[in-house]
Amino acid sequence: MTKDIFDCIRDSHSVRNFQSEQIPEPTLTRILEAGNMAPSAGNLQPWYFYVVQDPSVQEKLASAAFDQNQIIDAPTVVVILADPARSNEKYGERGAQLYCLQDSAAAAQNILLAAEGLGIAACWVGAFDEKKVQEAVEAPPRLRAVALICLGYSDESPKDYKERLRLKEVVKFIH
User: Fold this and answer.
1) What CATH number is attached to the domain comprising 125?
2) What range does the domain containing 118 cover?
3) Which residues fall within 8 angstroms of residue 157, CB to CB, at 6 or more apart?
4) d(Cα 109, Cα 8) in Å, to the nearest integer?
5) What residue stretches are annotated with the Nitroreductase domain (predicted)?
6) Which residues pair with 77 in a beta bridge?
């Protein structure tokens, strides 16, 4: 059974301590399918998901991410890579420089929400050396690393509701 989407949005938070138990394959597949269903400019789907469960590769990823140890601790790390060339074919430079990154970020968000809905903890890692991540997963040079998503079962105490700015502080209605 999955959670309501609004509950997933409210309850999701970064987890940096994971249990060693691996995510069952059917659950992981559902999470990846959610990522693949993300919207994309021209429906080009300019992303690739490299699913890393090899501790030696996870160590290289952690090193590339300035020693963020949740990458080693998580049983699974999904490296989301964008293919700028795919977006460039239809949208030129704006597609290559922006759309493919936006599209891949939307896929990352779908992965995070699906994980939350299925009871899987996650942490989006965005601070890393792109080239080192690309080398760690042996991705072709044309691909750009956009995000590392650590996935597993939480080994942390539940967190309180996260504070957010009030809508009136971030919303402007134009009538």
Assistant:
1) 3.40.109.10
2) 5-157
3) none
4) 11
5) 10-75
6) 52, 150
16 and 156 in contact (C-beta within 8 Å)?
yes
For 38-76, write each residue's pLDDT tens digit.
999 999 999 999 999 999 999 999 999 999 999 999 999
Please indicate, yes or no, if residue 166 is contained in any of the structural domains: no
Rounded CA-CA distance 106/84 in Å is 15
The structure tokens 């044309």 sit at 142
Predicted structure pTM score: 0.95
- Kindly state the DSSP code that residue 74 receives in the 8-state scheme: S
Query: Cβ distance 19 to 155 under 8 Å?
Result: yes
Q: Is 13 exposed, middle or buried (CB count within 10 Å of its CB: 0-12, 13-18, 19+)?
A: middle
Q: Structurally, how many domains does the chain consist of? A: 1
